[in-house]
Amino acid sequence: MRTIPAELAKRYEAEGWWTRDTLGDLLARGLQAAPGTEFRVHSAVRPWTGTFGDVELVARRLAEGLRARGVGPGDAVAFQLPNWMEAAAVFWASAFLGATVVPIVHFYGRKEVGYILESVEPKVFVTAERFGRMEYEPGLCAGVPIVGVVGRDFDDLLGDDPLPGTIAADPAGPALIAFTSGTTRDPKGVVHSHQTLGYETRQLAGLYPPDRDRQLTAAPVGHFIGMVNAFLIPVLDGAPVHLADVWDPGKALGLMMSDGLTVGGGAAYFMTSLLDHPDFTPAHLRYMKYAGLGGAAVPVAVTTRLAELGITVFRSYGSTEHPSITGSMYTAPEAKRLYTDGDALPGVEFRLAGDGEILSRGPDLCLGYTDPDLTGAAFDGDGWYRTGDIGEVDGDGYLTITDRKADVIIRGGENISALEVEEALLAMPGVAEAAVVAAPDVRLGEHAAAFVRMRPGDPAPGIEAMRTHLERAGLARQKWPEELSAVDDFPRTASGKVQKFVLRRDIAAQQT
């Protein structure tokens, strides 16, 4: 883990940003305060309706069952589940035990899941028998001591009685390992403590408007922010939880009218897919009062479109490593909310390096990576994190992201490693060189676009042949490029390196 300067740690504790609470403590208090709060899963395959108290009982029985099997503080508990009740039960049970939870996005493929399980060596892995393209593969978790499969034997893990209270753990110790794709070929394991994750939860909750009403959460709970929004913030606020295990804009519009649910933002795609759906009517706007956008590139065309419909838009900027660096309050001046990514949030500091790269630090900055080499490269001795993003700051201290130094595409809030996709493309017959970059996408913010240089005499593949190849390679579908172009050569630096910024610029110019 990275070294946190002593003066920073003292400051965070003195300001109350870091406390002695574990996640288990925070959850136990919140659940005790509002046991009758509604918890509902809107699903075609596994619907569920109950209360916080009902879910807590399952979580505490699971915690007791795992405790009896030797699971406790410091042990890793991994789960790969859709937005189901059982995902909340696993997360809450892990928190009560003081264990380290490892959420895995439910649409990750066998390559990513296998790497994650091998990296963290969890004591427990909970997954689903089948959901969409996800299917339980016993061989992937052969080395995990305790495995539970929802829809098959998950209930066998439950103890007869619920675990009382919480098991003590070090608040500064690991509470969560969130895997995210980046510039490396394998997902990066980002480690957060009880303190960093607890502060992030309180800080993010503070950005939300008080009249946001009953929100529908469709972002995957296997993703860092989806999990915080679904399983932590509502408990702290005593707010109902409504989950959808697939994002269906038509279903979401229907739930607005039938159940009075709201959709309050996330990646820009969630909002634009509602507006573009044939079932959308002006009557739905009463359930779309706010749009807190982040997690992916936020086109100005989207923010202005939403504002013209009377929706209050506010943007934020962060990453799994440092979840909330900047953000605008919903009460900020409209120009700041629409055209910038906000100013520094409480406790957070950021500055620009000589090349414009954003450096940040704050109480919600992670402890580091599971890979010490990545930790050493991303953090310095003074506590600053190199984000890999380029930005500009206006006279009022508001930040705007202008480019990305890191070689990563953010599609609908999900990170895609360009290197990983390029290596898969290079295994195609006849491909001599490949480059993958981010292309603007009006729905998703960005998508992957691939360029290939073929060996002399070899024909360029079509996009369907590329997709077939990537599927056989086990690459998750959201990582597949949505554009494919063959080039005679790439724009290069004097040293021969591909100038990806030129490729990105050319693609953007073609779409204007």
Keyphrases for this structure?
alpha/beta; 16 helices; Rossmann fold; GMP Synthetase, Chain A, domain 3; 512 residues
Silhouette: globular
Helix fraction, binned, reads 25-40%
What share of the residues does DSSP label as strand, in percent? 15-25%
CATH classification class of one domain: Alpha Beta
Name the strands of the widest sheet in spatial order: 13-14-15-16-17
Low-confidence stretches: none
| Corresponding CATH superfamily of one domain | ANL, N-terminal domain
- DSSP, total strands: 27
Mean of pLDDT: 92
Second CATH tier, the architecture of one domain? 3-Layer(aba) Sandwich
By CATH, the topology of one domain is: Rossmann fold
Q: What is the CA-atom radius of gyration, in angstroms?
A: 22 Å
Assembly type of the chains comes to single chain
- How far apart are the termini? 44 Å
What does this protein look like?
Helix 2 packs across helix 4 and helix 3 packs across helix 4 (85-97). This protein starts with 5 loop residues before the first helix and ends with a helix. The chain is 31% helix and 25% strand. The chain is an alpha/beta fold. It has 16 helices and 27 strands. The chain is globular, with a radius of gyration of 22 Å. The strands form eight sheets. It has a five-stranded mixed β-sheet. A four-stranded mixed β-sheet has the order 2-1-12-11. The model has no long low-confidence stretch (mean pLDDT 92). Among the domains are: 20-209, Rossmann fold; 408-510, ANL, C-terminal domain (GMP Synthetase, Chain A, domain 3), CATH 3.30.300.
